[in-house]
Design goal:
CATH superfamily: Homing endonucleases
Number of helices: 5
Low-confidence stretches: 143-147
Order of helices and strands: HEEHEEHHH
Oligomer: single chain
Mean pLDDT: 91
Radius of gyration: 16 Å
Length: 147
Amino acid sequence: MVLQIILSPTEAAYIAGIIDGEGSISLIRNCKGKNRRPEMSVTNTSLELLQYLHSKCGGRIRTRSPPKQNQNQPYEWKCTGGRLFCVLSQIAPFLKERNKVKRAALLLNEYHGVTPRNGKYTPEVLINKAMFESKFMALSSRGTRAC
């Protein structure tokens, strides 16, 4: 099944603005010792904004931990897998924040080259994947973080 998410230029630009201002493009690890996978996310107290992202891009919305007194409830939208690449390829030309532009380009241009579809990593592919992850993580505004 080929994933089809088609955004108009206006929708792509708007979503890029949300990602630039409120979102993140990252590599996350679900389990210790496992390889990282790409994720695009936005955390916000506007459920309507996240529902818009969900309606246009798919993904999932979840309620974050309960807010402290006098704070609004935060929600998080996440997009991963094939949806992420489909959406990212359309919004990338509109991204402005320097590190997000570089991270998007790195994912679109190099991620599939270092990630075998069958999940079988040779020693050479593991080295290439580690170099890719290091390059990607170095683009963080906070620098490389320990896992």
